[in-house]
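Contributing new records

If you add data, match the layout below exactly. Sequence lines come first and carry their own label; structure lines follow with theirs. Keep one chain per record. Anything else will be rejected by the validation script.
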Amino acid sequence: MLGRHHLLLSTLTFLMVIIPLFSIFPEAVLISIAGCIIGSLIPDIDSRDAVIFHTEVKEFRNSGPLSALNTFALIFPLFGYLTKYCIYKPSVIVFNTLIFSENSLKMKHRGFMHSILGISTSTLVTGIYITPFLIFFDLFSIHFLSIFLSGYLLGAFLHLVQDSCTRSGVKWLHPYSDLKVRGNLITNARPENTRYQRFFLKYLTAVGLLVLITSTVYSEISSHVFSVYSFVLAALSWLVFVKFLARCRTQ
């Protein structure tokens, strides 16, 4: 999928689940959203012109509320280049040298970074790298760091789900297995080939707003209950999208 689709689909899905908790844990919610936004783009650091390397998502320019994401995008390259040159490339070399046979992991698009091993390694090492920075500025909190990394990992996980819906597919267990999950979606910007993505974005926005309005109207109901409800709804929505719209299968 295109970078903007990854960013919006992952963020909207995450917002559906986490927004009901904003009134209780505002700081934690904002930190987790930041993690999800960054994580949603991180797997594409193995692509030369990925959105994570730019300080602006050009399609969001002059796009109303979406323009706000371009303010946040100013830090995208920091995470993009840090991950590419200080995590991705060294990890491939270390894993090939110490664990796997030579060249089991290749530095190519939808390779290491599009696997469970890749996004898990990226999440862990990112936490290690930013910890000294947080300590230096007296901002370190294991609680908030864990929340950020959880959002980051979920964003990256959703990225893999989305790419599994495309014809190129994803090898989730690479390099342990060549089993690939792939669907029928085409990765380009032509309107006729992005209709399912655009439909699902509108659906997630509508459902998210419905959950937010409902949780506000029925404020006597626990926010945790609404969050669990939203999680189940988001999971079922993605299951329908993956199975019946993208028609994913394993090969």
